[in-house]
Amino acid sequence: DSDLSMRTLSTPSPALIFPPNSPGFQNGRGSSTSSSSVTGETVAMVHSPPPTRLTHPLIRLASKHQREQANIDRLPDHSMIQIFSFLPTNQLCRCARVCRRWYNLAWDPRLWRTIRLTGETINVDRALKVLTRRLCQDTPNVCLMLETVIVSGCRRLTDRGLYTIAQCCPELRRLEVSGCYNISNEAVFDVVSLCPNLEHLDVSGCSKVTCISLTREASIKLSPLHGKQISIRYLDMTDCFVLEDEGLHTIAAHCTQLTHLYLRRCVRITDEGLRYLMIYCTSIKELSVSDCRFVSDFGLREIAKLESRLRYLSIAHCGRITDVGIRYIAKYCSKLRYLNARGCEGITDHGVEYLAKNCTKLKSLDIGKCPLVSDTGLEFLALNCFNLKRLSLKSCESITGQGLQIVAANCFDLQMLNVQDCEVSVDALRFVKRHCKRCIIEHTNPAFF
């Protein structure tokens, strides 16, 4: 951490998210170096450090006694920095405009390990350029302190903004650009190639992203030593609809250290893609292939190769999965803690039995919309999975109050139970409430409250 005395007061600083009709924008006041001529857009504005006193003729100056009594001025620097640490990026930039002391504190490097921008109207490319330029002041061309950039939902983010991050943030460890559908593979390649410490990448909803790989130049440079490896451990590609098996193959070959992978609604992924994944990524702990309609029991056979390393699995609405696939998971993944199999209508009481007898440490289970699961399956759960905390049986037509009572009598730690659209009596729900004191019951029975 650099000393506050090293901070210069003559450097311009950005105040982000200033709409054109705000007081700081009108008539050019509050901006000494740049503004935007485009109406109706939000821009990054650059301004000089504020004066020590307010000199506007319409503002009445406080007396010396009142200034001395201001509680905020009594706080030491470390307390102010702690308060500033809870502010989003745009508010922190606003604080830098209050006075010279706040300017110094607001630009303390400890507060700039994270940049967080949100909003559909933000000119995020320009905001990132201005911010990184300011943060690079003490270390030319690089932001050594910046580790996290979150610009989720900023639809105006383009490849230019990501290229700025890639060029200026070599110590970046976490990048979230979910919902930014204008970015492409090339920009993502630049980031993963120039930020070797990147571990967490969220590109969910980025429909143009079809792969994660090094650029050709970086690949040639690193291959003799690193074997084209990327350090990413957490990857969320939810709603990347264009991702196919070949792209997943490339991801697996480059990101061999993956522990968390989410492929929700990547509808083109098949069992073949999962086979590639299991060849290279043997350390996966959490995996979601929800709504991947081409994934079947053969895909679960591949996933089962993760064995005891797998703790979280979501296969919701994978209609081709049956008891056969569940049996593979139950047999080899004995330390499974979470399973979401909602909408897998091929699962029966036999599948639940395999699961309950082999995955006894299960804590969360969703078998909603599985019409072939009945009270018999619930009995197997109750007699084997005593640590169960969350259970969803939504729209399970064969479930009755008797099955719920068996579960409640054995799973005392149950904290959430979803029985919406199930034919269960009020007495059964009251029985659950008596035995599981902390359980929140989601139901559609108007007689129970």
TrEMBL record:
<keyword id="KW-0433">Leucine-rich repeat</keyword>
<dbReference type="Pfam" id="PF25372">
    <property type="entry name" value="DUF7885"/>
</dbReference>
<dbReference type="Pfam" id="PF12937">
    <property type="entry name" value="F-box-like"/>
</dbReference>
<keyword id="KW-0677">Repeat</keyword>
<comment type="pathway">
    <text>Protein modification; protein ubiquitination.</text>
</comment>
<comment type="similarity">
    <text>Belongs to the FBXL7 family.</text>
</comment>
<dbReference type="InterPro" id="IPR032675">
    <property type="entry name" value="LRR_dom_sf"/>
</dbReference>
<dbReference type="GO" id="GO:0000209">
    <property type="term" value="P:protein polyubiquitination"/>
</dbReference>
<dbReference type="InterPro" id="IPR001810">
    <property type="entry name" value="F-box_dom"/>
</dbReference>
<keyword id="KW-0132">Cell division</keyword>
<dbReference type="InterPro" id="IPR006553">
    <property type="entry name" value="Leu-rich_rpt_Cys-con_subtyp"/>
</dbReference>
<feature type="domain" description="F-box">
    <location>
        <begin position="69"/>
        <end position="115"/>
    </location>
</feature>
<dbReference type="GO" id="GO:0005813">
    <property type="term" value="C:centrosome"/>
</dbReference>
<comment type="function">
    <text>Substrate recognition component of a SCF (SKP1-CUL1-F-box protein) E3 ubiquitin-protein ligase complex. During mitosis, it mediates the ubiquitination and subsequent proteasomal degradation of AURKA, causing mitotic arrest. It also regulates mitochondrial function by mediating the ubiquitination and proteasomal degradation of the apoptosis inhibitor BIRC5.</text>
</comment>
<feature type="compositionally biased region" description="Polar residues">
    <location>
        <begin position="1"/>
        <end position="13"/>
    </location>
</feature>
<dbReference type="GO" id="GO:0051301">
    <property type="term" value="P:cell division"/>
</dbReference>
<dbReference type="GO" id="GO:0031146">
    <property type="term" value="P:SCF-dependent proteasomal ubiquitin-dependent protein catabolic process"/>
</dbReference>
<comment type="subunit">
    <text>Part of the SCF (SKP1-CUL1-F-box) E3 ubiquitin-protein ligase complex SCF(FBXL7) composed of CUL1, SKP1, RBX1 and FBXL7. Interacts with AURKA; interaction takes place during mitosis but not in interphase. Interacts with BIRC5; this interaction allows BIRC5 to be polyubiquitinated by the SCF(FBXL7) E3 ubiquitin-protein ligase complex.</text>
</comment>
<keyword id="KW-0131">Cell cycle</keyword>
<keyword id="KW-0833">Ubl conjugation pathway</keyword>
<keyword id="KW-0498">Mitosis</keyword>
<protein>
    <recommendedName>
        <fullName>F-box/LRR-repeat protein 7</fullName>
    </recommendedName>
</protein>
<dbReference type="InterPro" id="IPR036047">
    <property type="entry name" value="F-box-like_dom_sf"/>
</dbReference>
<keyword id="KW-0963">Cytoplasm</keyword>
<dbReference type="InterPro" id="IPR057207">
    <property type="entry name" value="FBXL15_LRR"/>
</dbReference>
<keyword id="KW-0206">Cytoskeleton</keyword>
<dbReference type="GO" id="GO:0019005">
    <property type="term" value="C:SCF ubiquitin ligase complex"/>
</dbReference>
<feature type="region of interest" description="Disordered">
    <location>
        <begin position="1"/>
        <end position="38"/>
    </location>
</feature>
